[in-house]
Predict the 3D structure of the following.
Amino acid sequence: MAFCFSFSSCNSINFLLISIALSLLITEPTITQAATYGSVVKFRASSWKYAHATFYGDETARETMGGACGYGNLFDSGYGTNTAALSTTLFNKGYACGTCFQMKCVNSKWCYGGSPSITVTATNLCPPNWYQDSNNGGWCNPPRTHFDLAKPAFMKFAQWKAGIVPVTYRRVPCAKPGGLRFKFQGNGYWLLVYVMNVAGGGDISNMWVKGSKSGKWISMSHNWGASYQAFAVLGGQALSFRVQSYSTKEIVTASYVAPANWYTGMTYKAKSWENFH
């Protein structure tokens, strides 16, 4: 509580408090707007932590195609073989799809000399195996943090004969050239969109769509993995999207991504600068 020793000092203090309050009311919306729509928010690497890694599939990585994130053919969607399936604890109900991790094999005779690091993108879920002990086969059982890598990725830092190796890992920014990519599924009354090639944190938490005729942003709900859906008639309109990062809360607007004659089964690319950082 502030105390006044004279009438004049009391008036001065009141004037100062009113001035500060007014300045806050004026500047707060501007700060909020900049933080969500105009500013550039860079995703920073996290600290190093410990986990374990295994691999699935063979050298061709055929078994890693598709997956719980819905990216489909990982070669066509740009992810290749440097990918990982995450344990439930890391997968975060699909919100971890697209996140990138740097890791090194440690404290094992199977690690390659020089401790080479690899960087992988999360494209799948490693489900629990409750019939196996968490320390003997049930590697992805909660609350374990575990990475099940594509075999070609695993072979870059350890001998595949190991089966499982301890690793040190950290979240890192995703280096994805070009803009966001949107793969369309659904029908004329239900648009399902898979968001790919997400840079920065790699993850998304919210999404909106706007048709060129309606001119209104429609909130899309999370379906599963990296897909979002809108129950609306959007045919015959050029479509724009707003995508929000799960990690940094930054929002990127991709304008007129799809032409008015868009159709499902196609992947549409945003402009090269319409991506996270």
